[in-house]
Amino acid sequence: MSLSSLSFFVIALTSFVTLLFGQKSNPAEWEFVKERKNVKVYCKEVGDQSAFRGKGIIEGTPEKLIGVIHNPKRWKFWIDNLEEGKLLEQKSDFHFVFLQEIDATWPIKNREIVFESIISRVGPAQILLEMKSVDHTKAPKNNDRVRAMVTYTRYWIDPLENNRMQVTFENLSDPGGKIPNFMVDWASKSFPVSIIEGLRQEMLNPTQEKALLPE
Question: Is the residue at 104 inside a domain?
Answer without folding.
Answer: yes
